Amino acid sequence: MKNRQIVFVPGLLCTRALYAAQIEALAALDASCHVADTLSDASITAMAERLLAEAPAEFVLCGLSMGGYVALEAMRLEPQRVQALALMATSPWPDTPAATERRRRLVEVARERGVAAVAAVIAEKLFGPKARQDPDLRRRSVAMAEAVGAEAFARQQQAIIDRRDKTALLPRIAVPTAILAGTADEVIDPAASRAMAAAMPQAEFQMIEGIGHLVTWEAPEVATGALRRLVSAFE
């Protein structure tokens, strides 16, 4: 696995902490891990452009949720640089009017009451049934949200609202791709991930029983294993 480069793309209200277990495991195997900046821009395209400007010449790309939207946009912009792709708890489809309205309400909550209040509101949807009973996971999710802050959260939500439909791109993605979804994900329907995998010529789909939206936290060994398999193909 020597000299392998991996770029991780955090999701909404997430930091590099989202991938802490994966970064630790892969770094121990001499993989070089980079985390994309998803806090500075108000469009998915701008996030992807920043990622590509700061990334190594060639790399394995991993995105969860909003991070998956950014990863797909990077594939649209410069597919020749991506050696393999991991998409977790994400979808290629654009926002729905109902989802857009919910996002705008949450931005108002963040600005009026603080981003920790938003984290408390969405905590029930982030985790599967077992993980919801873990106070440490809740604490970590709130701490991660507070590190992002209300203004970056507002930029992220606007980026998600404005994102492109990527369904036409999927058949053209010709790199090995791991797609993971949890059966208990209440943020993104796992059926969307299954359909996405079916449209991609080199995708392998893995459904994880009882796991919610934050796959890398709830099933860290599964997420790490999927990445290790992708990266090991380039040894």
UniProtKB/TrEMBL annotation:
<keyword id="KW-0732">Signal</keyword>
<dbReference type="Pfam" id="PF12146">
    <property type="entry name" value="Hydrolase_4"/>
</dbReference>
<dbReference type="GO" id="GO:0016787">
    <property type="term" value="F:hydrolase activity"/>
</dbReference>
<protein>
    <submittedName>
        <fullName>Alpha/beta fold hydrolase</fullName>
    </submittedName>
</protein>
<dbReference type="InterPro" id="IPR022742">
    <property type="entry name" value="Hydrolase_4"/>
</dbReference>
<dbReference type="InterPro" id="IPR050471">
    <property type="entry name" value="AB_hydrolase"/>
</dbReference>
<dbReference type="InterPro" id="IPR029058">
    <property type="entry name" value="AB_hydrolase_fold"/>
</dbReference>
<feature type="signal peptide">
    <location>
        <begin position="1"/>
        <end position="20"/>
    </location>
</feature>
<keyword id="KW-0378">Hydrolase</keyword>
<feature type="domain" description="Serine aminopeptidase S33">
    <location>
        <begin position="49"/>
        <end position="218"/>
    </location>
</feature>
